[in-house]
Hints:
- By secondary structure, this protein is mainly alpha-helical.
- Helices cover 39% and strands 0% of the residues.
- Helix 4 crosses helix 5 (99-113).
- The longest helix is centred in the middle third of the chain and has 23 residues, at 75-97.
- The chain is extended, with a radius of gyration of 21 Å.
Amino acid sequence: RMARAAQEMMGNSEIAGLRTAPKKELEEADQGTGGASDDIGEVSWNVPTVRLRYAANIPGMTAHHWSSGIAMATPIAHKGSNYASRILAMTALDLLTTPRLLADARQYFNDVQTKNAKWVSLIPRGTEPPTFLNAEQMRAVRPRLEALKYDPSRYATYLEQLGIEYPTVRAGTNAPPAAPARPQN
């Protein structure tokens, strides 16, 4: 219901809710190009890397927009992340117990993925991270961030800590209610 309500609210032409079945086929993407953004770009140009995409968001939302972020603190994201973590663990076990998989991955990486294109860092070797540039801002912001950290000793869920009851969609309608006031700690 929440997914359909969000899709409707965003003016999505196809209001289908959540997908009910996974894709059966693997997809091969160009090395380091296309698809969703992630923080493993430099890693994937230097070692064989698997990107796992899993259902933890609502289909049809706008990327880098609040509509994509609303699912992240709900059971939608929790269930998707839980299953994805199982797949990652099983993949790690396969790689640790089947050395041939590692050799095949390295060969594919060298002979196919990076055969015609090599990664070169734009940052000179030995350059230290410039964390000093924002040290004053981090000192000012850190106490506010600490207040948002989930406290499992006081709350059963992060949603409870934020004062949010799930689901946040009113019964009998796809329209979500106004966001609840956030409690001040």
